[in-house]
Write a sequence for this structure.
C-alpha cells in the first residue's frame, strides 16, 4: 500500500549515543573519575531484575561503574529513602536509578522525591519533571528522551506535526507529551478514559504508544504514513503496538525489541556521564 | 442554530468561592491570624498596575491583608530575588504574587523559583507546576484553577471529552492542559506552530483559549455544542475568542470581562486563605 516503512533501529541509535560517550569517559578517567550509576531494586520481580541486569551490563561494557543495591520485598518507604539518602551523600555515585514499579507498601513518589536532583538521571523527581516541561532539564526521563533521540537521529520532522501520545504516567506519557510540545508538535494525550480512541489515534502524524498492553494499538488505527514509536515492552517480547499490522500503514516504526528499549538504556548511560562531568567541572572550579 | 448558549458567569463562580472563604477568614481571626498576600509589581506597565490594584481591592473587601511592593523598571534579578527572600522570611506574609510579565532584563524564571513553595499561591515555581501535573499541588496556577472551577461549578462533563488548549505557557497553557488531563479529558495542546489550527480546534468538546491575541478564535472554528473558555484579556476588554460568533456555535461560553478573570482573583484569595490556614495548623501543632 504505502511505500515500505523505515524501521527505526534502536540499536543503531544506541550505538551512536554510546560511541560519543567513549571519549568523554576517557576524559573523565584522566581526571581519575569513573562515572558511577547506582541502581536500586526492591523485591524480586523477574522483569525488573532483568532490566537492572541489562543496565549493569551496559555500564560495564562502556567503562561506567555500576553499583547494584537489592532490597527485600518487605522494605519500607523509610528504609528505601534511607538507602537513597546514603547514595545522595556518596561522592562516588553520580546517578541513582530506582527501578520501578516498587512493591505496593512503598510510597513510590516519596522515594523518587528523595533522589537528589543532580543524581536524578532518570528524571523522576517533581523538580526534574518540571524542568523538562519547561525545556531546561539536565536529565529528562530516559524513555521520553530516547523517543526524542530516535526522532532526532532519523531526522523525522516534528514541528507543526500532530503527535498523539497514548498514556499519561509521570515518567512516560506526560513527559514525552511535554517534550514533543517543546519541539513544536501539536500534542494530544490519550488514556484509558479517552472516548473513541481509534479516531483520536488516527489524527496522529506521530504516535507514541505508552500503554503497557501488548499489541494494543491496531493497524487500522494508524493514519497511512504515520510515524509509530512503541515504548511498550510486554511479556513475550511484544510492544504496545500490533507491529505487523502497523508496519503496513506507517512510514516509519520502531520494532520491539531493538526499538525504544536500547536507546533508553543508552540515554541512562549518557545522563550518568553528564552527571559525572558536572561533578568534574565543579571540582575543577573549586 | 443550536439552542441558546449557557453563559458561564465568572462573577457568580467568584462570589461562590469568596462566600465560602468568609467563615474561614473569621476562624483565622479567632486565632489572631489575618491572611496576607504580598504582590510585587516591577515597572509601570499600566495593565499590570490595574491587575495588582484589583487584587488588592479584592483582598480588602474580604478582610485579607494585602501588601503591595512596587519596584522600579530598572530592578535587577538579584534585587527582585532579595525582595522575594524577605517576603519568604516574613511570618506575616502567607502568599507571594509576582505580577508578570516583568521587565525584560529580569530572569523571570529565576525570580519565580525564589518564591518559597508554601507561599507560591499562584503555582509559578517548577515544583508547584510538577505537583499540579501529578495532581497533588496545594496551589495550582490561579488561571488554570479558575478554568477548572468554572467547569466544576457549572457541572460540565470533562471525563472522556476532547479538550483543546490553545497556548502552552508555563503558567497557563501547560498547567491547564495537565489539569484537564488529570480530570480524564483527552487533551490536545496547540500553539503558534500548529498546522491547520482551525481543524484542530474543531475537534474540541471543550476549548480553552490562552493565546493573548484579541478575538483570535473564530466562530467557524468551533464545533457546534462545544464549551468555550476564554482566558484571554486584551486591550479594549476583549478576550482571545470572537465572542459574538462563538456564542452562536457554543453550548456554553465564558464572557470577557466577567468570565475567567474574576474567578482567577477569587482563586488567588482562596489560595492565600489556604496558605494562612496551613500556618495556623502548624502553629497549633507546635
Amino acid at each position: 500500500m504505502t511505500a515500505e516503512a523505515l524501521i527505526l533501529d534502536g540499536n543503531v541509535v544506541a550505538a551512536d549515543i554510546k560511541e560519543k560517550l567513549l571519549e568523554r569517559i576517557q576524559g573523565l578517567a584522566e581526571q581519575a573519575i569513573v562515572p558511577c550509576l547506582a541502581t536500586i531494586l526492591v523485591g524480586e520481580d523477574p522483569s525488573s531484575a532483568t532490566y537492572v541486569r541489562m543496565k549493569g551490563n551496559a555500564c560495564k561494557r562502556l567503562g561506567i561503574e555500576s553499583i547494584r543495591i537489592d532490597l527485600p520485598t518487605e522494605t519500607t518507604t523509610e528504609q528505601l529513602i534511607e538507602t537513597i539518602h546514603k547514595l545522595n551523600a556518596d561522592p562516588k555515585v553520580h546517578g541513582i536509578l530506582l527501578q520501578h514499579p516498587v512493591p505496593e507498601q512503598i510510597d513510590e513518589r516519596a522515594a523518587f522525591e528523595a533522589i537528589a536532583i543532580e543524581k536524578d538521571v532518570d528524571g523522576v523527581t517533581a523538580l526534574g519533571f518540571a524542568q523538562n516541561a519547561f525545556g531546561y532539564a539536565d536529565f529528562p526521563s530516559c524513555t521520553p528522551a530516547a523517543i526524542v533521540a530516535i526522532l532526532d537521529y532519523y531526522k523525522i520532522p516534528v514541528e507543526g506535526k500532530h503527535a498523539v501520545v497514548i498514556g499519561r504516567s509521570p515518567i512516560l506519557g506526560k513527559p514525552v507529551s511535554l517534550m514533543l510540545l517543546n519541539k513544536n508538535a501539536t500534542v494530544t494525550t490519550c488514556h484509558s478514559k479517552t472516548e473513541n480512541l481509534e479516531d483520536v489515534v488516527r489524527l496522529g502524524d506521530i504516535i507514541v504508544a505508552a500503554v503497557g498492553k501488548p499489541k494494543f494499538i491496531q493497524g487500522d488505527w494508524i493514519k497511512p504514513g504515520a510515524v509509530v514509536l512503541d515504548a511498550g515492552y510486554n511479556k513475550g517480547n511484544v510492544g504496545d503496538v500490533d507491529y505487523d499490522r502497523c508496519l503496513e500503514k506507517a512510514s516509519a516504526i520502531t520494532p520491539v525489541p531493538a526499538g525504544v528499549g536500547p536507546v533508553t538504556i543508552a540515554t541512562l548511560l549518557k545522563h550518568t556521564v553528564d552527571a559525572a562531568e558536572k561533578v568534574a567541572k565543579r571540582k575543577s572550579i573549586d
In short: Chain B has a mean pLDDT of 96. The longest strand of chain B covers residues 36-42. Residues 168 and 174 of chain B are 5 Å apart (CA to CA).
